[in-house]
């Protein structure tokens, strides 16, 4: 009787977590806007704190925020099996831990626009790995849309005919790309009986197992030399609340609806949004080539979402 009641309650949670495709696209667009502008906020935080210190504080705050929200709303569930716990641990190791450390170091070596175009290659790798690991179907529209969108991304961040990239920063950001793809695949394997708040909380909590010792090993002896800045600290709080909590919860809801490949295809719009944010915030003029690139990015995004019905 109790088992039947538990299954009924769990099915109710899954039902409440269901999201329509229209709402899913609104959610993931919101997440991409948050993440695209987070590059600029991260660079502000890095002016006072080291990369490892920045991401450790960010994820630590995000974990506490998710715990508070989960307890207050009653949406925090218990993990039912060791297999589920291992999946969440692998997801937490891939991202936030590996991804954010690589992203922070990469952003400390190059500007946000260049970093965003490198990170936008996530959709180029996700279809292949998603097909190999979980057998997710990839259509020609997915591939064509991703390629077209990447051409537009390149136009957005090009300066003349050259793209100045720090080789070490490039290697670190490409590693971040691989971590992001693996994270999405692990996230897809998390059972749908767990709601989004629960999933992201345990992913973040699992990553703290790796963040805390890394912080003391890398930055433990530098704490006295850090010049505290309220502005930089405020940026970390903003990153935790918006980029690491709201953005992650929205993305988690969406990847279960439209899949790994289509979800990651939205990463292609991030460089366009970053370029617009730089223009609006810092007054940097937007060249016509970049405007055209933004249009191509959006066109490629729509192509990647197209489907053809077969008889």
Features:
311 residues, mainly alpha, single chain, disordered N terminus, 0% strand
Helical fraction: over 70%
Strand elements, count? 0
Question: Which spans have pLDDT < 50 for at least 5 consecutive residues?
Answer: 1-16
The biggest sheet, with number of strands, parallel, antiparallel or mixed sense and barrel status, is:
none
| Radius of gyration computed on alpha carbons | 20 Å
Work out the count of structural domains.
Answer: 1
Structural class: mainly alpha
- Terminal CA distance reads 45 Å
Which overall shape is indicated by the principal axes computed on the Cα atoms?
A: globular
What's the tally of helices?
12
* Element-level helix/strand string: HHHHHHHHHHHH
Question: Mean pLDDT across all residues, rounded?
Answer: 83
Estimated share of beta-strand residues: under 5%
């Amino acid at each position: 009787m109790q088992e039947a009641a538990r299954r009924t309650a769990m099915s109710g949670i899954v039902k409440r977590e269901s999201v329509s495709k229209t709402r899913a696209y609104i959610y993931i667009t919101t997440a991409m806007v948050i993440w695209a502008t987070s590059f600029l906020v991260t660079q502000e935080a890095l002016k006072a704190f080291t990369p490892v210190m920045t991401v450790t504080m960010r994820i630590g705050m995000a974990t506490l925020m998710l715990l508070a929200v989960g307890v207050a709303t009653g949406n925090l569930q218990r993990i039912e099996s060791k297999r589920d716990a291992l999946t969440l641990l692998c997801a937490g190791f891939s991202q936030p831990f590996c991804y954010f450390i690589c992203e922070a170091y990469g952003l400390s070596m190059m500007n946000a626009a260049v970093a965003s175009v490198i990170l936008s290659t996530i959709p180029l790798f996700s279809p292949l790995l998603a097909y190999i690991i979980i057998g997710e179907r990839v259509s020609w529209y997915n591939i064509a849309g991703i390629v077209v969108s990447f051409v537009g991304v390149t136009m957005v961040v090009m300066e003349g005919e050259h793209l100045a990239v720090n080789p070490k920063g490039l290697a670190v950001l490409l590693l971040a790309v691989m971590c992001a793809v693996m994270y999405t695949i692990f996230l897809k394997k998390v059972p749908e009986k767990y709601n989004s708040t629960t999933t992201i909380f345990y992913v973040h909590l699992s990553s703290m197992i790796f963040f805390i010792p890394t912080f003391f090993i890398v930055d433990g002896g530098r704490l006295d030399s850090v010049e505290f800045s309220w502005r930089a600290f405020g940026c970390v709080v903003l990153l935790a609340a918006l980029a690491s909590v709201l953005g992650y919860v929205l993305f988690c809801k969406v990847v279960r609806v439209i899949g790994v490949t289509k979800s990651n295809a939205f990463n292609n719009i991030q460089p366009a949004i970053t370029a617009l944010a730089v223009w609006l915030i810092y007054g940097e003029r937007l060249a016509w080539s970049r405007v055209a690139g933004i249009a191509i990015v959006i066109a490629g995004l729509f192509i990647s979402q197209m489907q053809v019905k077969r008889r």
